[in-house]
Amino acid sequence: MAVGTLPQESVGLAAAAPPARERSRAWKKLVRNPMALAGGVILLVVVGAALVAPWVAPHDPAKQSLIRRFSPPVWAAGGHSAHVLGTDQVGRDILSRIIHGARLSLLVGVSAVVVSLLLGVALGLLSGYVGGRVDTVIMTVVDVTLSFPQLLLALAFVAALGPSLVTIIVVLGLTGWERYARVVRAEVLALREKDFIEAARALGLGSTRTLVRHVLPNTFSSIIVLSTLQVAQAILQEAALSFLGVGSGRTYPTWGQMIALGRDFVTVAWWLPTFPGLAILMTVLAINLVGDRLRDALDPRIS
Which of 18, 102, 122, 252 has the smallest C-beta neighbourhood within 10 Å, fewest atoms? Predict the structure, then answer.
């Protein structure tokens, strides 16, 4: 049968079958990797604690008790069983604040990545598929954006707009889209001359339908890996902004804010900045472990 008379279902199946097989192979490689499993377990614990924070946190994260201020962890001399990780300078429970802080960190990380993903993928598809002046303009904007340090750019925007949860999400999202645009553009440039794309064009499919049905699904692997790593990056940036005092404000407990408030007391109460710092370390490490191993699993050149 000539290419021009191929049914549209055949074109869709030809494009979809290889990614389905690749996903099955990638999943098997991922679950057999001990580092990926370790990262996944840590991540599940953090996400689970964040989702049920009001029920698993032993205390109200904002409740103060000057009688219990600077209480050390339970295993240290003077520790109290009611406060496993100790209390801060106004008697708030550290463990409860870390658990509630996980909610905000994950919310900011995931939401910022969603904003970046939607904008970057759309512009990457447009740039790679249309080409010409459109590609030149978009890539020029990408190069200019990448020339600015992302944290410095976010700091300037948040300082100008005022600290709030929505501002942090939007600013981090709008300062991270260029990575998606570059990755997706590179994928589209490699895909647009493939046989199944040519067959879709020969059948008279419009550009939008071709991009959505045949090009975009074949970029999912790269998008998933990049999104995983970008969540970790967004969590670090939110913590840095909170540490600098321009985060989501003082309404919610955040890990970066806890470190900032505890740095002046590190010599007398080492647990104040240590445990929030460990929470950031373990969460970002877990996400990176899963992201790196996912990248290896999705790479057909690595057996």
Answer: 18
Count of residues for the chain?
A: 303
End-to-end CA distance of the chain: 36
User: What's the pLDDT score for residue 6?
Assistant: 43
pLDDT in tens, 6-34: 444 444 434 444 455 555 666 666 677 78
The model's pTM: 0.82
Q: pLDDT by residue (tens digit) across 180-198?
A: 999 888 888 887 777 666 6
Query: Residue 167 and residue 19: Cα distance in Å, rounded?
Result: 37
Cα–Cα distance, 189 to 276 (Å, whole number): 43
Are the beta carbons of 106 and 42 closer than 8 angstroms? no
Buried b (16+ CB within 10 A) or exposed e, 195-226: ebbebbbebebeeeebbebbbbebbebbbbbb
pLDDT by residue (tens digit) across 196-254? 666 766 666 666 777 777 777 778 878 888 888 899 999 998 888 888 877 765 667 88
187, 165, 169: which is closest to 249 by C-alpha?
Answer: 165
Q: Which of 297, 293, 170 is closest to 238 using CA atoms?
A: 170
* CB 61, CB 276: distance < 8 Å: no
The pair of three-digit structure tokens given for residue 5, joined into one six-digit string: 């008379």
Helix (H) or strand (E) holding 54: helix 53-56
Q: Which domains are assigned to the chain?
A: 19-55+90-298 (1.10.3720.10)
* Of the candidates 36, 46, 61, the residue with the CA atom closest to the CA atom of residue 105: 46
Beta-carbon neighbour count of residue 163 at 10 Å? 18
Residues in Cβ contact with 302 at an 8 Å cutoff, skipping those fewer than 6 apart: 296
pLDDT tens-digit map of 124-136: 988 888 888 888 9
